[in-house]
Amino acid sequence: MKEIIDYIQNNINSFQEELKEFLSIPSISMLPEHKDDINRCADYVADKLRSAGMSRVEIFKTEGHPLVYGEWLGAPGKPVVLVYGHYDVQPAEPLELWETPPFEPVIKDGKIFARGATDDKGQIFMHFKSVESFFKVDGSLPLNIKFIIEGEEETGSASLESFINNNAELLKCDAVIISDTALFDEGIPTLTYGLRGLSYMEVEVSGSKADLHSGTYGGAVANPINILAGMIAKLHDKNGRVNIPHFYDGVLKITSKEKENFKRLKFSDKRFAEEAGVKLLEGEKGYTTLERVWTRPTLDCNGIFGGFTGKGAKTVITTKATAKISMRLVPNQDPNKISKLFTKYIKSIAPKSVKVEVKNLNGAYPVLTPLDNPATIAAAKSMEKAFGKKIVYMREGGSIPIVTAFSKKLKAPVVLMGLGLNNENLHSPNEHFNLNHFRLGIISSVFFMKEFSL
Ligand code: BES
Ligand code: MN
Ligand code: MN
């Protein structure tokens, strides 16, 4: 092992330079105008898998964005590990808030800044470099490995889901490793065992065919913006609970043991509020912050638009207003059922004077992964060894849509071995990745491949 670790330490600068190339491709899955960049990025991933030593690399075209598959199965009798990650990134807007351009990666204060640095390009790169280091030093891997790297995670992983259903044999494995979550804190080795699910809705309220003079018509017709705002206000009660009937049906309560574990973590409301840049934390009454973000379902309006938003005062009653609303879900809520409940409730509170359309844009199942399997145990040991500290287990408020398909279809344990930090501005301007964690992630991955092969 020592030789491989030395190899990583000696080559870490060139690994970082290479990561810059990857980060400079604007592979934004949500925007059709970046289709060529997405394809170029898939080619780049395929090249990296080849040069890392994979014996078979294939790009699978899909109805959406390409999937990149790589494998090396040169260790018969040894376990098969499937590494999953995503090469697509979120849009970079608002661009004016970036200190350096989002697709011109810069290293500053031990961090690499670019869209996708921590979510998820920097994190998948750790596994590319871990595998490459094995081949460079040993000429082989201690176990068998498969990679499946997709380009649609940020839009819900639709193509990968059908790919898994049709290619369970190709992806067959003993464990799935995913590095797309965060550490509990800087330098703390962490495994995540829970993710929230998601149900993402769009509500459009329309009234008149054209904008109306608000003097002539104000007081006589329904105003879509007023109505939408009123409907949004009805989505929570005064205790911060979601008002949708049956929303909380089946919500899994945390055990007293889990509650104790959360309390033992060094978490500060004050610091969390500071990092978020808010005056005060707020949410459902009766729960701690960690309980609220890790174990409670929530509803948030993500965007609202309509009407006159230019300079000055234009007196109009506009034609329509739209809101984008996401619900974070927890076990055992079902995103399909929740989106139906949402639609039903919205329709039930809509006045007859307007037309209301509700669309379901996106969804993900919530996840709780078991911890008592050899892969998770090996991952915990490996991270402890790399970081020189005891492992912390935590849950997460975000979602990774494909995890449920992996556990259901491949019936393999999923290990969430992320090395990001929640304050690394994922989905936000000035996204970055801590380069010490990048290095420790490569080393953790190397230790894991060895440990899980034994
Ligand atoms: N890597 C994130 C998930 C995540 C978020 C992990 C926060 C740890 C902390 C992933 O790329 C992501 O952003 N998922 C989306 C899924 C959605 C677009 C279907 C999310 O959670 O909003
Ligand atoms: Mn991600
Ligand atoms: Mn993301």
Describe the structure.
The protein has 454 residues and is α+β, with helices and mostly antiparallel strands. The chain has three domains: 282 residues, Aminopeptidase (3-Layer(aba) Sandwich), CATH 3.40.630; 119 residues, Alpha-Beta Plaits (2-Layer Sandwich), CATH 3.30.70.360; 33 residues, no CATH class. 35% of the residues lie in helices and 21% in strands. It has a six-stranded mixed beta sheet, sandwiched between helices. A four-stranded antiparallel beta sheet has the order 11-13-9-14, with helices on one face. Strand 1 and strand 2 form a beta hairpin. It is globular. Bound molecules: ligand BES and manganese (II) ion (2 copies).
Summarize the structure.
This protein has helices at 2-23, 35-52, 117-138, 158-166, 224-233, 256-264, 269-276, 289-295, 335-348, 374-387, 403-410, 435-453, and strands at 56-60, 67-72, 80-86, 106-108, 111-113, 144-150, 175-178, 190-195, 197-206, 212-213, 298-306, 316-317, 320-329, 355-364, 367-368, 392-395, 414-416, 432-434.
List keywords for this structure.
four-stranded antiparallel β-sheet; 21% strand; six-stranded mixed β-sheet; 454 residues; 18 strands; Aminopeptidase; 3 domains; alpha+beta; single chain; binds manganese (II) ion; Alpha-Beta Plaits; binds ligand BES
